[in-house]
Amino acid sequence: MRVVIQRVSQASVEVENQVIGEIGKGLMILVGIENGDGQEDIDWLCKKICNLRIFDDEEGVMNKSLMEVGGEILAISQFTLHARTKKGNRPSYINAAKPDLSIPLYESFLLALEKESGKQPQRGQFGAEMQVALVNDGPVTITIDTKNKE
Fold first, then answer.
1. Active-site residue, 146 included
2. Which residues of 49-86 are buried (b: 16+ CB within 10 A; e: fewer)?
3. What is the structure's pLDDT at 35?
4. Is 78 a catalytic residue?
5. What pLDDT score does 149 carry?
6. What is the dihedral of CA 26, 41, 14, 73, to 10 degrees?
7. Where are the beta strands (DSSP E) in 16-150?
8. Which of 79, 109, 122, 146 is catalytic?
9. What is the mean pLDDT of residues 15-37?
10. What pTM was estimated for this model as a whole?
11. What is the Cα–Cα distance from 72 to 23, expressed in whole angstroms?
């Protein structure tokens, strides 16, 4: 699994001009699922996300986690995170998992985030054309790939 995590002061996602998810202070997470991903990847990633110390403490140092600041989560499925661009100019998405694998894993990811954070994450709509808006706070943007845990 590959994620792009952005610390936000606010974020939202719309489908067909309707807001389907929105948060205030917290993390907006783009989630890419690839062939071979499983529950072990989900569990490791959710623990890592919820405990990342990327929020400012009283001295303005990034020393607090999502859990410590009571932040919210907006998680959006995004297969394009697995784009391969080595050949030509048209990205290949061959490594991105097909919906029969990625939908159940995305749902498991959301459940694991809720269990780990104690809050129900807001979400996008799998496979829909979405418009995502956010105010990146910092800016702070972090990528994590479960294939590169070391």
1. no
2. bbebebbbeeeeeeebbbeeeebbbbbbbbbebbeeee
3. 92
4. yes
5. 79
6. -20
7. 18-23, 26-32, 55-56, 62-64, 72-77, 122-123, 130-145
8. 79
9. 97
10. 0.94
11. 6
Selection from 111, 78, 80, 104 nearest residue 93 by Cα: 80
94-148 residue pLDDT tens: 899 999 999 999 999 999 999 999 999 999 999 899 999 999 999 999 999 999 8
What token pair was written down for 129?
């054309």
**Residue 75: closest CA among 106, 44, 115:** 106
Catalytic member of 6, 55, 78, 122: 78
pLDDT in tens, 32-68: 999 999 999 999 999 999 999 999 999 999 999 999 9
Residues in the chain: 150
From the list 39, 80, 131, 143, the catalytic residue is: 80
By the 8 A CB rule, do 49 and 7 touch? no
Known catalytic residue: 80? yes
Residue 15 in contact with residue 79, Cβ under 8 Å?
no
C-alpha triplet 2, 143, 24: angle, nearest 5°: 100
**Residue 150 pLDDT more than 80?**
no
In order of start, what are the domains of the chain with their CATH numbers? Answer: 2-148 (3.50.80.10)
